[in-house]
Specification:
187 residues; alpha+beta; 3-stranded antiparallel sheet; 7 strands; 45% helix
Amino acid sequence: QLKIIFNKHEKSTKRTKKSEMIDKSLALLEHLSTALTESRFTKLKKNFIETYKALSTKSDKISELNFNQNEKKLEFLDHNGIKLGMKDFSAGESEVATFCLLWAVNETAETRYPIVTDSPFNRLDTNHRNNFIEKILKKSKSQIIFLSTNEEISNIDNFGLRDFIQSTYIIKHSPEKRSSKFISDYF
């Protein structure tokens, strides 16, 4: 009986040691994950702020980008460290901030992905539009897929983009077929 009790105690001790090792391993993995997230986020934040200052006419509106680790979400902060909500931005300012974030993700990723933007010129004033064209579209190393309305860009030459566009299409909708198709050479 003493041998049985000793074996049970030994197995219990082994389980406790395994549990402790598992707990330590999980804590180490969580620490590593946090360190990697912070390292990658530091690069992303730097790129976002630089791009935002280059594009925005109110370059001091967003002074800091914070990653709330507990809530797993990004927060824009003003120069006083106050969190900005979507109601604090006009449609154009939201467009600029969102694009800068996409741009920063793409610039700091190990792989470049195409960036798809839907009608940003409709929401941007002349100064923001010019900044967007000169500092992003004309200097991009990534493919940018630009969805626009016919009203938004009636002539690409007006924006000096002819040399920067590889191809243009119009999406033609057929109500009868309830589908759409691409037609080359929109302009």
